[in-house]
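Q: I have 326 residues here and want to know how they pack in 3D. Can you give me a structure?
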Amino acid sequence: MKTITTALVAGAMLSLAVRAADAREWRGWNIHPPEYPVSTGMEYFAEEVGKRSNGELEAKVFHSGVLGDQPDAIEQVREGALDWAVFNFGPIGAVSPEANIASLPFIFNSVDSMFELMEGPVGEEIADGVRAIGLEPLGYFDSGARSFYHRERIIETPADLDGQKFRVMGNQLYVDMVNSLGGNATPMPYADVFQALSTGVIDGAENNYPSFESSGHYEAAKFYSNSQHLILPECLCMNKDLYDSLSPEQQALVKEVGAEAALLQREEWAKREESSKAKVLAAGVQIVEIEDKTPFQEMMQPVYDKFLEDNPQLSDLIDRVREAQQ
């Protein structure tokens, strides 16, 4: 009887330990400050997952890149050292060829067409490529359109980039894009860009209005040229092994809340985009609309050719992305 009692106690303790391990707080990585639209969406996700699971699932957001830079964080979520995050498709594309399709310059006609494709059959094929590297997509956030900005000059034609050093995210496609336009691409962590702009280590960079404003880059770069060369989604995603360990009901819950968080973030993004543009204009930034992007687009063919040479299996998927927008 004593042996049985001991075994029952041990089993109960093991069960409690397993439940405690299952109930650990999921650590979420975020590069942006707490007031940013991405942060709002992530906080919504963390709060609603905890509330709707009655505390069985708990998540916390660590803002402002305190858990590391984006490429490192991607690896940590893939390996399970971190649990969830919002990542730009640019750095994800560096390790997922399917995701890299979104990083092809001018591949999307507009933000609306990008979301329509990402949330349809084409997007599901891209999502499978993200799952293959250990990340489970839960929703797609808006990061607007990325454009060039410069310390000292307006960018109106490709010739204006000639010989200029531009910071890009760590993805070979962006290096090829800037180099094809005659510039010198300089991959660099996001946190280092302000100092590099201020000291002239780089001549310019490229990003969207909210990031251009929230990072303070507009204080050092007073010329913003609306090239909109990249329209990239951001992925609210979690470690795939962690996702696979959830019950079907829990998986459905995180997917539902992820989709809601994405819609909330997009609403907040639209507001922030307008306020950020107004703020940089008030600070003296000169914004130039590039009405005819054809000269830039024509110089992107080598970028596409090189990508397809390395990833011939994705030719059909790229064709379908283009055809869907005609």
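Q: Anything worth noting?
A: The domain at 25-323 is CATH 3.40.190.170 (D-Maltodextrin-Binding Protein; domain 2). The radius of gyration is 22 Å.
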